[in-house]
């Protein structure tokens, strides 16, 4: 059965990631003074005035690049070739030929003409995720370009860092405005201003764009329930600790950063875990963990622990029997040894007593297994 997550055991908490009321934006200023808000973090030093020539990726093609092929059947005879020489055509062709855009609009280095992009800001597309944003940026700057504008809704959703190379990541909606400007201008120019931090950003929090959503309904003639997480916490553009010896993210002539912006449920889960730990700091021993740990047992001293089990199995009325495996010189008793669940009684408690013949000198492990087979 398809699904996005599973939450079988009652002690498992599934956590989603959300944005916070802080954002990182910068202004992409066009030659006609229009401003497009871009995403991403960079520390470029371009002039504030829009004086840098703009070029669409297709117009920067090297010899032999830049054709979109379309064939409406399996015959090669009537294949039609459309050459993109103006970004305006892109607005139309993307609707009819979404899977046939050439490598050049993705700004892959072999397809770029150095002479055409030198000293310019190159507008690039992202129709797949196989070519990383940083690789596109490096490809353009290594060929003489001064920066890129990347049209990518997904990359715009999180604030990745790109060093000192100017980059502006814009949405598809803003791309329409940009491409129309390039088409209508005989000398399209722009500039990319440095990133600034925006506080009290709204709307926030919202569920991260990279997460799946709950779906309940019919799919492929069957009724499906794709569950949603139990809780959500900050998980987008979180300032997290970073290895001090990792030079891959260090700016030129700068020490490696001690913190880095990261996104994902690996950021949101620690928020929830930290809150839970703080709330239960004074009563950890009373928490109903599926695992049990006892310490500082001396001589023939005994320790008693109580746990509550929840029946999450298929059968509502069933009996579970405890099986205990213990190391030598230890005694573990489970009372009662059987738990009889009913429709009305899905939670039952049991007691575990640990007794050692001598004071243990090292950690030892045992197990209690409840089975209804």
UniProtKB/TrEMBL annotation:
<dbReference type="InterPro" id="IPR000209">
    <property type="entry name" value="Peptidase_S8/S53_dom"/>
</dbReference>
<keyword id="KW-0645">Protease</keyword>
<protein>
    <recommendedName>
        <fullName>Subtilisin-like protease fibronectin type-III domain-containing protein</fullName>
    </recommendedName>
</protein>
<comment type="similarity">
    <text>Belongs to the peptidase S8 family.</text>
</comment>
<dbReference type="InterPro" id="IPR023828">
    <property type="entry name" value="Peptidase_S8_Ser-AS"/>
</dbReference>
<feature type="domain" description="Peptidase S8/S53">
    <location>
        <begin position="228"/>
        <end position="281"/>
    </location>
</feature>
<dbReference type="Pfam" id="PF00082">
    <property type="entry name" value="Peptidase_S8"/>
</dbReference>
<keyword id="KW-0720">Serine protease</keyword>
<dbReference type="GO" id="GO:0006508">
    <property type="term" value="P:proteolysis"/>
</dbReference>
<dbReference type="Pfam" id="PF17766">
    <property type="entry name" value="fn3_6"/>
</dbReference>
<keyword id="KW-0732">Signal</keyword>
<dbReference type="InterPro" id="IPR041469">
    <property type="entry name" value="Subtilisin-like_FN3"/>
</dbReference>
<dbReference type="InterPro" id="IPR045051">
    <property type="entry name" value="SBT"/>
</dbReference>
<keyword id="KW-0378">Hydrolase</keyword>
<dbReference type="GO" id="GO:0004252">
    <property type="term" value="F:serine-type endopeptidase activity"/>
</dbReference>
<feature type="domain" description="Subtilisin-like protease fibronectin type-III">
    <location>
        <begin position="286"/>
        <end position="373"/>
    </location>
</feature>
<dbReference type="InterPro" id="IPR036852">
    <property type="entry name" value="Peptidase_S8/S53_dom_sf"/>
</dbReference>
């Amino acid at each position: 059965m398809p699904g996005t997550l599973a939450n079988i055991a009652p002690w498992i908490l599934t956590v989603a990631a959300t944005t916070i009321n802080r954002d990182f934006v910068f202004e992409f200023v066009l030659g006609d003074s229009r401003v497009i808000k871009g995403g991403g973090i960079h520390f470029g030093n371009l002039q504030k005035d829009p004086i840098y020539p703009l070029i669409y990726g297709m117009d920067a093609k090297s010899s032999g690049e830049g054709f979109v092929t379309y064939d409406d059947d399996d015959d090669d005879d009537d294949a039609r070739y459309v050459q993109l020489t103006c970004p305006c055509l892109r607005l139309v062709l993307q609707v009819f030929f979404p899977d046939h855009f050439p490598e050049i609009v993705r700004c892959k280095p072999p397809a770029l003409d150095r002479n055409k992009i030198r000293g310019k800001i190159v507008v690039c597309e992202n129709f797949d995720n196989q070519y990383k944003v940083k690789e596109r940026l490096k490809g353009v700057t290594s060929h003489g370009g001064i920066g890129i504008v990347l049209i990518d809704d997904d990359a715009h959703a999180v604030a990745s860092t790109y060093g000192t190379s100017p980059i502006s990541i814009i949405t598809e909606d803003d791309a329409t405005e940009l491409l129309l400007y390039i088409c209508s201008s005989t000398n399209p120019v722009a500039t990319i201003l440095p990133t600034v931090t925006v506080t009290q950003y709204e709307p926030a929090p919202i569920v991260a764009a990279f997460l799946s959503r709950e779906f309940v309904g019919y799919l492929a003639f069957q009724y499906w329930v794709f569950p949603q997480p139990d809780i959500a916490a900050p998980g987008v553009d979180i300032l997290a600790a970073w290895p001090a010896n990792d030079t891959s993210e260090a700016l030129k002539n700068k020490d490696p950063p001690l913190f880095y912006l990261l996104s994902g449920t690996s950021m949101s889960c620690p928020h929830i875990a930290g809150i839970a730990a703080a709330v239960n700091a004074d009563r950890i021993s009373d928490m109903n963990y599926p695992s049990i740990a006892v310490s500082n047992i001396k001589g023939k001293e005994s320790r008693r622990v109580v746990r509550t089990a929840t029946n999450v199995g298929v059968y509502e009325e069933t009996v579970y029997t405890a099986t205990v495996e213990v190391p030598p010189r230890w005694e573990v008793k489970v009372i009662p040894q059987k738990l009889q669940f009913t429709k009305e009684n899905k939670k039952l408690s049991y007691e575990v007593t640990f007794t050692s013949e001598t004071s243990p000198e090292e950690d030892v492990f045992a197990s209690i297994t409840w089975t209804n087979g």
